[in-house]
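Q: Please design a sequence for this.
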C-alpha cells in the first residue's frame, strides 16, 4: 500500500476536495483506495456522505492511552473500491492526549500496517500539529494544494521548509509529489506571477492545476465528487489529469 498526504498548513486550499476527488478517480480506475480523514472538522467524512460518525479514528488513535479499536474496525464503505476512515470533532481531543505517549508521531503509521489497499489518501488538518505530523510520518508522498496569491505562495514555501525539517528530524522518506495550484485562472496576472515566483524559487509546481467552480462545493454537499456529479465540468477534467499523475507516481513507486 502506498500512502499520500494532502497537506498544507493553510486552510481554504482545496485539500479536502482534492482528497475526495482523487479518491474517486483512483477507485474508478480500479485501485482499492482508502480515504483517511485526519482533520477534526471532519470535512472529508461529510464529503463522503457521513455525519457524526461513531466509531471513528478517535477510537483508533486514543489519547493518553492507545485507542481501543483497530483501524479496520472503523472503516466505512463509500463505493466500489473506495473506503473511508472517518473523523469527528472529538479528534481534536486526541491531540492533547497523545503528546505524552512514546512514539506519538507514528501512531497512525502503526495503525495502517497490514491493511489491504493499493492506495491510502490522508486529508490532513490545516496546521503543523501532531495530527498532521502523524499523517506526514505515515506517508510516502505529499501533495500540497495551494491558491496562487502572494500570501499563499509565501505560506507554501514556508510549509515546504517545515516538511523538510520534519522529514529530517524524524528520518522520514517522504517525497514531495508537487505543489498543486487550486482555484487557478490563467487569465489572472496575479496567478501567472505567483506561479512564476514559485518556479523561480525552484519549487515543485505541477503543470496540472485546478480551476474554480461552484460545482465542486455542490458535489461535496451531496456526498459526491465532481467526477460523478458533473463529469463534463472543466474541473473534473483537471482532476482526471491529476489522477493520471498519481497513477504514474504509483507505478514508479511499486
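A: Design:
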Amino acid at each position: 500500500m502506498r500512502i499520500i498526504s494532502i497537506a498544507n498548513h493553510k486552510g481554504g486550499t482545496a485539500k479536502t476536495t482534492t482528497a475526495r476527488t482523487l479518491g474517486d478517480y483512483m477507485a474508478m480506475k480500479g485501485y482499492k483506495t482508502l480515504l483517511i480523514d485526519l482533520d477534526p472538522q471532519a470535512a472529508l467524512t461529510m464529503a463522503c456522505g457521513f455525519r457524526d460518525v461513531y466509531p471513528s479514528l478517535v477510537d483508533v488513535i486514543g489519547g493518553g492511552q492507545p485507542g481501543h479499536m483497530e483501524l479496520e474496525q472503523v472503516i466505512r464503505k463509500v463505493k466500489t473500491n473506495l473506503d473511508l476512515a472517518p473523523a469527528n470533532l472529538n479528534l481534536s481531543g486526541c491531540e492533547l492526549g497523545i503528546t505524552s505517549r512514546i512514539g506519538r508521531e507514528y501512531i497512525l503509521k502503526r495503525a495502517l500496517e497490514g491493511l489491504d489497499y493499493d492506495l491510502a489518501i490522508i486529508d490532513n488538518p490545516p496546521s503543523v500539529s501532531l495530527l498532521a505530523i502523524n499523517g506526514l510520518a505515515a506517508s510516502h508522498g505529499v501533495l500540497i494544494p495551494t491558491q496562487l496569491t502572494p500570501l499563499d505562495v509565501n505560506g507554501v514555501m514556508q510549509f515546504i521548509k517545515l516538511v523538510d525539517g520534519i522529514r529530517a528530524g524524524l528520518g522520514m522518506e517522504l517525497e514531495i509529489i508537487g505543489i498543486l495550484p487550486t482555484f487557478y485562472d490563467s487569465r489572472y496576472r496575479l496567478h501567472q506571477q505567483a506561479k512564476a515566483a514559485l518556479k523561480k524559487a525552484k519549487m515543485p509546481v505541477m503543470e496540472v492545476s485546478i480551476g474554480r467552480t461552484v460545482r465542486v462545493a455542490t458535489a461535496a454537499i451531496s456526498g459526491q465528487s465532481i467526477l460523478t456529479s458533473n463529469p463534463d465540468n472543466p474541473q473534473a477534467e483537471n482532476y482526471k489529469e491529476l489522477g493520471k499523475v498519481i497513477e504514474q507516481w504509483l507505478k514508479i513507486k511499486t
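Q: Thanks. Anything notable?
A: The longest helix spans residues 150-170. The chain has a mean pLDDT of 92.
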